[in-house]
Structures are given as structure tokens and as C-alpha cells.
Amino acid sequence: MLIVRKRLEDREISLKRFKLLIMYMNGKKLSITTIIILLMTCTIVAVSFSSEIGTIIEDLTWNEGSFLPNYETGFADYTPANFDSEINSTHIHIFETSGGEYHYFAGVYALVPVTDGVLSLTFEARALADIKEAVTFGLLTINSSDMKYLTGARAYDLQGEIDFAPFDTGYHQFNYRFELEGYTEVYLFFFFIDATTANWNQEVWIRNLAFEEFIDEDSPVISSSGDLFIEQSSYGNQISWTLSDSCPGTFEIYKDEELVESRGWNNLDTVSLNVDNLEIGTHTFTINVTDRFNNSAIDQTYVRVSEEPFLTIGDFDWSFGVCERDCSLPLNVSPYEPLIYDVNDTVLHVLEEGYTHDLWVGASASIPVTNGLLSLSFEGKAISDYTYAARLDVRICDSVFKQEIFNYPVILSSDIPMTDFEQYNKTFILDGYEEIILFFYFSDGWSMDWNQEFWVRNLQISINVSESILHDSYVDSYFVSPDSNPSGIVSYNDNLLVATQRTDVIHQFDSLTKEFVDSWEISGIRINNFDTNGSHFFCMEKGKSYLYILDENFNTVEILQIDVIYENGLTVFNTDSNDPYMFVGNKQTAKIYKIDLNDGSIISEITTPGPNIKGMVYDGIFLWVCDKDLRTIFRIFPENNTIVQEYQFQQINPNGICYDDDGYLWITDSSSSIFYKLNISIYDDFYTEIDPNDGTFIVSYIPATMIFIAMVITVIGFSKRRRK
Q: Three-state DSSP class for 46?
């Protein structure tokens, strides 16, 4: 099988440039046509430099050298090779003079200074050869004391990608920064790879070489586990911080004003502190972090200690009854005769025994709100004589006008009747509220005499809630929606457009400042999820088979009938090409269909990964699908219906999904009226294997934390824009 590495670059579907390396692995020579993957042990990053220290080509003493690198010991074995060099005040020129030495690195080296454990340099390089496979350029650093090359400070570039010779790359600008902690000087070695005994007339030029003193002006970054609310008698309570910086230094931790810990730290170091046995009250833990350049950062975490950290069912006065099934009306719960209920300190139980129709049936109570947040934890259960009537919902209304703020489905009507309790946790943002009405209920929309009932037990409402509880591990930041039930979301002209289910309004936000920009009311179309190709918008209405194509002002310009009834989730691709298509989801058939946008016909179909698919977005390789019930985003390879990754949330019920110009995912949560930016990028590295027997793809995901250079001879092309 042919193994290729593909990477999504800057909102484009493109094949990353593949680089040819010739190396020894376990003493075996690899042929030039062999595909080789070199695992890099240290990330090489481009940087912007600050102050030049004045070292240029003519300031250094250069020597010719060639060596066969020993990949087991790391030593550079210097031997003669057939090449020559010319060096003046502005240029280094290395060139092959006759038949080469197979697999030797040939070039020039000089002793260079290392400043504060960092070697930063900038230069221009050019390469020339008779065949493109020989157009290589390399850079190594070598320990000046034992001539052992440093695996974490090396680079290979300038592999040609076209099939004619001779090939001249022209000059390219390079900036490198190497972490060389503990070194004051190293040998810097510029070379080309002499791959065969043939004379391919290889040449490399280096010019405008300058070394820079690395000056770190960035403060350390502190990621906190968040404020903690604990019961005094509990044990095993910890707070933690993750520290990151390119030049780590030291930190100090204070409890209130008392120093409790101080030491040095490494990049991405996680510092944890036990906070058991604290006195009742609020305690402040402050961490002061400093790097080697005296940049600092401070974070304060509050630990609140109480004898009774939660309010429970028995702390509230519950009203049992029914109200009209209309979210636009005030919540007025009235007693109802067929309703049977009971309540104690731990359990709420509501049973409909008789006929009700078009009513919400349940229990309500006034609940205090602290810090603008309401955090609920409870176990729920619902059963009914009919599967689709088993239901339990949570409704939150303001305590003055009794109008709905949030509606949170716990057990959906499409679920199998439950026979045991399940745990539910949810935190709601309620800025400006000190009290709300909490309503547990089922929705009786059936003109049948079905017995419906639900239970709520072990309810815990936190007395003090930290905003950090909203942040699942995948969340970078969030916006509060101006309307309830945000559903679809797209990235458009560096802004976010968000659709709301119940108002048929599109809101536009600046994704950086979170500021409101504009809004549009979509006349005649109830948008749930939608997509854009940058010039038009694409949407469908639930239960219908018409795709609406809208202009930038959301005016309908075309209507296409497709061979699928739309339920939830759609995304378009290649809309400006001859083979445009879309993916659309149908919950009832549990299928995601690939639709030909020329005639609306079905091209192919795959099975949905979960029971309640909502939004989806396609990046040209993977299909990202939200399942609201499972609180999960699935990353699917649609060619063979392979689930490559799953991202599961604790607090969020993902609905709409898109990615921005930087490749980061955004999702909406219609039940909590928030949309979130995630720290998940579509640019993660992966491999695909192409089966030579049938040409199908087999996906193998590789974590992005591992740095690889993959090499292939054949370059596979992809469409260069995601949504055309």
C-alpha cells in the first residue's frame, strides 16, 4: 500500500509538501524511491527575531566536511567526499565535483555561539541539481566537545516537486530557533545529501546569514483547574495549574498570604496542591509564575469550604400541576386532579393517571442563583405506556414575569422507556438573575389516555458556582446567545453567523471581540442548520426536501429539490465545480446522505454514529457530526464510514458546528443558549493508506503532538478551497 500524509492548510484542502530524506535505519541503506518517515524529537518553529548580535558569514571560521550520520549513537563520522566549497563575505557555495559518496552529508561547518540556551538564525538558501530528487538542503547542529550531532536541532528543506531537470529552487528565506539548554557554542553544519555515486551536479548556496539573540517578551501562560467549592469533611480535593512558556523559570504558591510552595518548572508542567482540612470560609490560592527573562503571570483560585455545599429537594417548596404547552406564555402551574405526586427530601415523583392533552405536567419551585450561574446535578427516570411519551424536561423561567429562559431536554420522547435512573449535570448562565423558577415536567401532547410518570432524585444545586464549571476540557471560549435555542453556525468573512430555531433570525458576531455586528430575519424559511461557500448560504427546513440557496443578504436565489427528507445537519462542498455535492442527515432513517447538487440525487449513504445527529461540517477529508443526545462530536471518514475520533462533553449538548479561518471548531448548544469555540483543530495530522486492490482509503489517525516528515514520490492533488 502507498502511504501518504495529508494536511489541511489554512482553510484549503492541499497536500503538504513532501520532503525526500536519505538516511540509515538500523544500518540498512534505503533506496531513493523508498518512502521514509523521520520522527523528529523536537519541534522546529519559525520565529520573529529581536536584536541581531552581528555574526555573519565572514565572522566565522568555516571548514569543509562530510559525514555518514550514525543514527544509533548520534555521532558525526567525518570522511572525505567529492565536493568543494567557495566562501566569501556574503555567500557560502557548496557543490559536487565528481561522482559522490553514497548517503554522505557534504558541506561546511563553523563554531557559533548559543545565547541563553537558544540558537536563533536567519538566512536565504538555494539548491540546484540535475534531477529533482537531488535538490536537497540540510542544517545540523553538532556538539563541539564530542562531535555528536543534536537530534533536536536540525532541518531539511528544498525538495523539488516537479519532474524536469535541471531544477533550481531559487532563494528561500529560512528562520529557525533551536532550544539548546546547557550549550554555549555548537558547530553549525550546512550540507546537501549526496545520495548516489552518480554525479548529479548538486549545488547549495547560503547567503544573508545572521544570528539573533533570543529575547523572550511573552509572559508565561497559566491554565487553571478553576475555583473549587468543597464540603469541609471531604478528602482528596485538589486545585491545579498547567504552566507553559518557551523559557520556564520558577513559581511561588500562596495560601491567602502564606507561601506554601516554590520551585522551578518545565514547559507544560502541571502543578497540583491538596486543599483538604481547610477552615470553613473562602480561601485564596495565588500562583506567581516567572520565566528566565523575568516575564511573569499570576492566577488566583478560590476554594470555598462549607458544612453543606448543596441545596437539595427538601430545601424548596414545590408546586405540582399543569400549564399550557406554549413557551411564549408565562409559566403558571395550576393544580390538576388526575395528577398524582409525592415528594420527600430526596425524590420528586409525578404521575399522570388519567387523560390530559396539550399540557406540560410537572413540579416547580423557586431556586436561588449565585454568581450568575445555576448548577444542577440530579438523577432522572421516565416511563410511559407508549415509548414516545416517555419524557423528562427541565424548564427555567424568570421569577418575575415567569417567561422561559432555557429549556433543557433530559430524557427525550424518542428514547426507549427507562427502567433505571441516569445521572444528569448541567450549568446554566443566568447573568443578572438572583432567583429563577425551576420546572421539572413531561410534555403531554397526545390525545390518548397514556400513563406517564417521571422521577427526580438526589438533586444537588450548588450554593456557589465557578464559571470554570462551564468549561469542558475542549472549550477555549464561549459566547452567550442573544436569543434562546441557537442552532446552526457558520464562519463568514472573519465573523460568526448563528441561526436561532424559534425566531428565524441570523445573528452576526465578530469572532475575536465577541461584539454583535448585525442580524437578519429570514422570511418564510425556518433555518435549523445551514452552511456557506463564502458567497452563498445553503439551508433546508426540517421535514422537507428542498435546498434553499440564498445570497449574502439571505434572499432566495435558487431552490433545488433533493431525494432526501431533511431532518438535521447539512454541509456543502465543491459548489463552484462540475461535481458539487452536499451531506444531509435524516434522523428517522439513521442515515447521512451524499447528494449530487446537479440533480438532487443520492450518490451514497452512511449510517449515523449516534441517535440524534444535528449539525455537520465537511472539511474535504472528514465529516464532523454533532450528536446532541450523546454530547459528542464525531470525526468521520465518509469514504468507508470510519469514526476516526470522538469528542465527548460533560456540560455541552452540541447542535450546530463549523470551523473558522484558523481551522478551529465552533459549536452551538441550543439547550443552554451558548456557542463555544473549541481547542479542536481540523488540521490534526493523520495518515491514509490507499488499498492497491480497490483504491479505497483506510484511515489511521496519528496525534498532532508527534512531529513527522513524510516522503512520497507521487503528489496527490485536492481542491484548494473547502466550500466551493
A: coil
